[in-house]
Amino acid sequence: MVSIITAYSDKIWKKSWDPHVKDLDPKEWEKTYLDSIKSTFESFPDKVALAFIGLEITYKELDLYSNQFANMLIETGFKKGDIVGINLPNIPEYAVALIGALKVGCIVSGVSPLSSSIQIQDQLNDLGSKGNKVALVTLDALFETKISEISTKIPQVELIIITNLASFLPKVKRILGKLTKKVPKGKVPFLKEKKVKFFLRHILEKYSANPVDIKVDVDDVAFIQYSGGTTGGMMKGAMITHRNAVADMIITQKWLQWPHGTGIGLSGFPFFHIAGLFFCINMIYMAWTQVLIPNPRDTNNICKNIANYKPTFIANVPSLCQMLMNNPKFSKLDHSSLTQCFSSASPFPIESQQEFENIVGEGKLIEAYGMTETSPLTTSNPRFGKKKLGSIGLPFNNVDLKLINTETGEEVPLGKAGEICVRGPMVMKGYFNKPEETKIAIDADGFMHTGDVAIMDEEGYLRIIDRVKDMIIVSGFKVFSTKLEETLAEHPAVRLVATIGVENPERPGSEIVKAFIQLDPRYKFDGNEKALKNDIINFAQDQCSPYEVPKIIEFMKEIPLTSVGKIDKIVLRKDQE
Fold it and tell me: Which end is more exposed in the chain, N or C (fewer Cβ atoms within 10 Å of the end residue's Cβ)?
C-alpha cells in the first residue's frame, strides 16, 4: 500500500499522465483573458466564431460588435469594477456582451433564464450590494415575464439591454420567426427608473466600433458565477479572476493538446453555467468555431448542426448525451470528425457511456470534474492514455489534491473515501461579499474544500461516490436541499420537509427531486392528496427554477430524525432502494 504522504505530496497520479503533460511555468497565466484572445482577433479575423441558426459571425465581427458594446457601457457611465449580468440563452449577444464588458474592466455574471423572478432579484441585489452599478442583458420575453415585475426592487440595476432570440438574424427571418411564433417575444414597457436600450437598434447601429483603452489587471475579477458552494443553502458568487480563468484555460488546452484555429465545438452547456462559460471562452481563445445551441433539449436541432458543421469537439452534461442517444437521428450521423466528447457536471452511468461510445467511437468520451469555485476544471481523464469509465480521471498539472476525512481533517489512505480538496491557480479569489464563507471553503493552506467525496486508486484515478452535503444533480444543475426545503416550508400545509434526489427513470444518470412532507396539523386538509400535491408543486413553480421543483411528493406521518433531532436522509434514501 502506498503511504498517504507519498500518495498526495508526491502526486502519484503523475505516472498516469499522458507523456506530453508536465507542470507549467506559472508565468504562462500572468495575463488577462483579453490579452489571451488578442491573437485570435489578429490572426483569424475571417474565421467563423459563432454559428447560430444559419447565421455565421466572424472573429472580426465579434471583435467590432464587442467594441460597440464596450463603448455603449462607457458612454452610459459604466466603468471598471461595475457589473454586467447576462440573462440569456446561448445566442450571439451573450458572447458579444461578455467580451465587451471585459474590455471595459466590468465583471460578468451569468444570470440564469431558468431562475424565478425572485431568484434573479436576489442575485442582482447581491451583485449591487457594494454600491457598484449593475447592467442586465436580457430577452424581451424574459423582460415581460420576469424583469418588469421586479424592476422597482433592483435599485442598483441602472441599465437594461433588451434583445430577442432572432435579433442577429436577417430581417426576413426575424419577421417570419415572429409571424410563425417560432421566436418568443415580449412587450417592453417604459421604465422611468431605468435606462433601457435595445441591442440591435441602439447598440449595433449607433455606437462606435473603435477599440477602448482601459487597463485591466490579471488579479481583477473577470466573472462572478453563482453557486451554492460546498455547503448548499444560499447562493454565493464565486469571484473568478482573469488569472484564474486563463490558468485553467491554458492547463486544460495543453492537457487536451488542442491546435489553435482548426477546430469546431458544439455544446449544450448554457453560458450562464460555469461549464458553458468555460466552453465559450475556450473556443474564442483557441480561435475555434462554436456552434450555439439555445435550447439543449432540442435534440433534432443539435443533430442538424452536427450534420452541418461536423464538430471536432462536443461538451455536454450526461443527461443530454442520454437524450441524444434516444434520438434515432444521432446514431445515423457521421461522427468521424469528432475527436473528443467531454462529459462533466453529473455522473454518467458506465453502461450509458459504453453505448454512447458505440455510436461516436471508442475512446472519444472524456469525463472531467470541476466546480464553479475552481474555474472550473481540476481533473480529467487523459486525452490519449488510459480512460477509466466512471472515473473523473487524474488531477491536472499544477494542481495539488488530497482527500480528507471530513470529521478529523486528516488525509485518508488510497482506496478510502474522503472529501476532495484542491489547490491551484484556478481556485477562486473568494465568495463575493462573503469573507466568512470564503474562510470555510478555502483553508489556511489554500485548499478548496469541494464538498465532494471520492476514492483515489493506486494509479491516481478518482471516482466520486457521494456529496458531503445534500446537493441534488438535475440535468447538470445543482439543487441545494437546504434552500429548497426552506422555500417549501413556507407553504401553509408543510410542517416538516426533506428533499432527496432519486434516479430519473427517463434519463439514467440524472436525478429528479423527491420531497417528503409532514403535514402541519393546523392545516385544514380535506383528504384530497392529489389536489394538495398539485398545490404544493404550483407553489414551488412560483418560487423556484424549473429543475428545482419536486417531481415526486410523498406525505409522511413522521419524517425520520436522528438521535440529535436532524432529519435522517440516510433512512429516506435507503427506503428508495
Answer: C
